[in-house]
Amino acid sequence: MPRLTPDQALCDSDLQQRRNPQSSLQSPLLAPSASQPTHPVMAPSLSLPALQQPAPLPSTLSTQRKDYDCTSCRLMGSAAFTSLGVYSHWSGMAQLRAREAEILRSGSRFGMGIRRMGIWGLSGSLVGMGVYRFWV
């Protein structure tokens, strides 16, 4: 099957309209009837004050939230953050255990406790971001 370019890929109604340009008048929305005029119906004109009114916030937010994020996107993002948090905890603690003697010998003011707390904080933040990404 040959590949079609975007200008060649037409739907059935486009093909029908190219074959018969008058067929666009036969669409169900524009079909004349006894109660409708034969010309297309235009949208009612809105006044300037009606257009200047803000949209109702609850309906706008619910519409945006509905289209905001799909479940698979949330699941993948959540899995990425959570697994990064788990990996950073596992890797950080393994490296800390491997260098524990060296760190204690160095006499640094940043001992093992503060370093463990930093690893826990980083990994906990990433896991928390994963949970937040999934539920919110």
TrEMBL record:
Pfam families: DMAC1_Dmo2 (PF15055). Residues 21-44 have a biased composition (Low complexity). It comes from the Eukaryota. InterPro entries: DMAC1-like_dom (IPR028036), Mitochondrial_unc_protein (IPR053092). Residues 69-106 form the Distal membrane-arm assembly complex protein 1-like domain. Residues 1-44 are annotated as: Disordered. This is Distal membrane-arm assembly complex protein 1-like domain-containing protein. The lineage of its organism: Eukaryota, Fungi, Dikarya, Ascomycota, Pezizomycotina.
